[in-house]
Amino acid sequence: MKKYLDINVYEATQQRLKYIFDNFENIYVSFSGGKDSGLLLNLVLDYKHRHNIQKKIGVFHQDFEAQYQATTDYVEKMFLDNLDDIDPYWVCIPQGSRCAVSNFQMYWYPWDDQKEADWVRPMPKHPFIINLQNHKFDFYKYKMAQEDFYMEFGKWYSRQHTGKTICLLGIRTDESLNRYRAYATNQKHTLSKNKWHPKIWNNFYHAYPLYDWTTKDIWIAYGKFGFEYNKIYDLFYKAGLSIHQMRVASPYHESAKAHLNLYRVLDPQTWIKVVARVQGANFGAIYGNSKVLGNKRFDLPPGHTWRSYVKFLLATLPDEIRKNYIEKFKTSIRFWWKHGGVVADDAIKELEACNYKIRNRGKGKRRSTKDQVVFLGTPDDTDDIKSTIDIPSWKRMAVCILKNDHLCKHMGFAQTKRQTEREHQLMEKYKNL
Q: How is the chain split into domains, by residue range?
């Protein structure tokens, strides 16, 4: 396992768990059924047993209905085998979940009570299952966004208990830059100087006890300690995926669509329901890992510039989805033309050498070490700029459409309050389709 100084990541995590159990009255684990959250739950239960800790821990599973049968089997086993040690929260409630396999359906709704006949699998029958009929969540709004539900659940859980509450998440910084930023940012409060347990709300905290683990470390721990794991990973291995390619996520999510077709091979019974559940899923399965959906390098269609291709793609979309992209693209254009963004010196030299039309305004605000650059027009593409991808182009806009990236994360967008309100309006409009 990875070491830093004289301690490996497992020993470091044991110290973090001690800190958590010593300083927080209420603890729950966010458990998706994947390798990271599964290992975290196993480690917490193991720590609890070895130190004879009697209080139960909460286990929160947000069930998105469409998933491998092996994932359901694993979640079920972990719940049933540990009922003496956990307070179970297995949630099967309609929520708005982003759909990255279709340009005609921005959201789909797991456990949609109006489409029960189309569910990928039946509602679980255990007495601890939380559904639309029996939930006690005072914060729940019908078909609210899954991200909002997740955050509000933590606040609700905290309000149900006395003292400090902490949610343990199996987030690792080597998985993505965004996850590293979630850990590394200085703009958060903690109980100690460590960054791995930020304060979220009042007496409610998040914690990332596995933040410094690698994928290899995860599997070493499963092998060394004999912990239960999701057997879908065995099938992934047999299908030829590397340990870094194996992902357990909603089949319609942007992180899983490239491997959507694996459902056909690994879980054919589930596959039949998956492709019927969401408009565009079958197309996503066929082309999800291809140039068609922007997941590989692809050539510009003959007779087009990237700008004209963006206009062509926009013309093929439904009105509401087209308006969503146009608003994002206009915001990006205005930003880079009027305000400008900070760009590293190496990228500026490349831009100047390639004769891009830019104006350098010098150092940005807030003690920035980078120069602020304004673009005098949007480049068609920036393929010859090798030092960065964080500059505007019509090609980036085209890729957003091809990837069904409705938030335009590929262009660096984060969701604003106004966009969140707009999202809720769209969800309300399309919830009955």
A: 3-216, 235-291, 306-430
